[in-house]
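Sanity check

After download, print the first record. It should look like this:
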Amino acid sequence: MVLKVWDSPVVFVDGKGIETITSTSSALRYLIENWAPDCGPLHLVAREVCMDVLEDLADREDARAAFIAAVKELGATLVQ
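Expected structure tokens:
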């Protein structure tokens, strides 16, 4: 799988501690494996954008921006 590494990582604090996400692939994995089932609309948008990036239908930095929006929606604290 192509990682689609971002220019800068997204670092945030969730219920488990500090998380660092550096690529579209790891963002999609985090969105699928670590999110509550009652996720909000920005979570769903982030998943769609990440999938589009992995299919070369969107830019990798679009996935980063969508992931940040989903993290904020979750109520996690952004560190970087």
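If your output differs, re-run the checksum step. Summary of this record's structure: The mean pLDDT is 92.
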